Amino acid sequence: MTGITSTREKRLMLFSGRAHPELAQQVAGEIGVGITPTEIRDFANGEIYVRYDESVRGSDAFVIQSHTAPINTWLMEHLIMVDALKRASAKRITVVMPFYAYARQDKKHRGREPISARLVADLFKTAGADRLMCVDLHTGQIQGFFDGPLDHLFALPLLAHYVGNRVDRQRLTIVSPDAGRVRLADMWTDRLAAPLAIIHKRRDPKVANEVKVHEVVGDVTGRTCVVVDDMIDTGGTIVQAAEALFDNGAADVICASTHAVLSGPAAERLRDSKVSEVIVTDTLPIPEERTFDKLTVLPIASLIARAIREVFDDGSVTSLFDGHA
Predict the structure, then answer these.
(1) 256 plus 118 within the same structural domain
(2) 10, 91, 125, 201: which is the annotated catalytic residue?
(3) Are residue 19 and residue 136 in the same domain, yes or no?
(4) DSSP alpha helices (H): ranges in 211-265?
(5) Is the same domain home to 80 and 166?
(6) Which of 23, 44, 86, 92 is the most interior residue, by most CB within 10 Å?
(7) What is the rounded CA–CA span in Å between residue 201 and residue 216?
(8) pLDDT tens for each residue of 171-201
């Protein structure tokens, strides 16, 4: 058996897509269940086929998939898995996506643009999802895109605990890399009792992934600066933030981020930058070719497993973060 039964005869079943099986196995180990055997394969034309090897009827199903590159493939696979569970009469389906695909497209910046983050939520609802579970959404408003419960998990306690034990807190300054991350940085300052600095920057709307840093707001002279963000994509923001901080007298710069997207030149940029350490979680798989000496990866499985257990037991996911986020 791959499920476990509670005193009320509920049955928890865990399912994994192919994007990040290592994380799913770690979550399964934390919960104490096996991953339900599933046949997933690609047809010659790229279409995805899914079939579960065991009955899922009446189960409380949790289906895990990390939306990494190639993101559209893994997103589609996730949707097909949910559809298969719905048609096989699972009682409740919880979509566990540690990294929410298209989260940065959460509003229209200009005319004739999509709101793709809302589309993703609608797709999962149509496929049959009853509940979503995500880690560190790019913006909180995405919680309102899904017509049903969305459990928003925070990696802050995990990351802040590591950083707090790593540096001299008397010399610590938390840095928001832009205005959009100030709320996140505020939570870090509350957690570590450290002052806040903000980097004011402006992107060039005509050039993708190009950032121009203007000034550092706050005292960073002689300080150990921790730049906090929800994700690292190409690494450009982090590298330019570090340069601005050192130009303003920072003694050291560390980066802490939940999602290691690490697209394109990110690994090389960060490796060659003045940043002394890049701290991330394993919400996304990190291929060996994208690892580097400065990279520290913290495990997220325990947090996800605890949240799954709370949902299964009709407990409180919010209680996991009381006083922490």
Answers:
(1) no
(2) 201
(3) yes
(4) 236-247
(5) no
(6) 23
(7) 9
(8) 999 999 988 899 999 999 999 999 999 998 7
